[in-house]
Design a protein that fits this description.
Layout: H1 13-21, H2 31-47, E1 57-62, H3 70-84, E2 88-93, H4 106-118
Parallel strand pairs: 1-2
């Protein structure tokens, strides 16, 4: 369940408390489900070199993310830039957590994504 780990996926405490009360939020994930997610992330990272060379990619990451460690994200960005060059844009949010689109600074992230999509 992750309880007792003292990890925070967001700085938006009211949202986290609402999720804790939501009966539709899964609290006790089976180990094989977590393993499946990890394998999916590994496959996605390994697929980066297979993307079309002119495909625009935006990678967003919060430096306060306590769920995904920085090393795999840095590896993803490195692979992305090596394969796609200028088509790969990475944005790191110093105050961002794992749930960037629900964090207190979410409007900044929304604006950045909208600007990226427009360009």
């Amino acid at each position: 369940s992750g309880s007792g780990l003292k990890l925070y996926p967001s700085d938006n405490l009211p949202m986290l408390m609402a999720m804790a009360r939501d009966p539709n939020v899964i609290r006790h994930t089976r180990a094989d489900t977590v393993l499946g997610l990890v394998k999916l992330m590994d496959r996605a990272q390994a697929s980066m070199p297979k993307l079309p060379k002119d495909l625009p990619v935006l990678v967003t990451y919060g430096t306060r993310d306590q769920i995904v460690p920085p090393a795999p994200v840095q590896q993803l960005v490195h692979t992305c830039r090596a394969h796609l060059g200028a088509h790969c844009q990475a944005v790191r949010y110093p105050d961002g957590y794992h749930m960037l689109l629900r964090d207190l600074q979410a409007p900044v992230v929304y604006a950045d994504i909208a600007a990226w999509l427009e360009n």
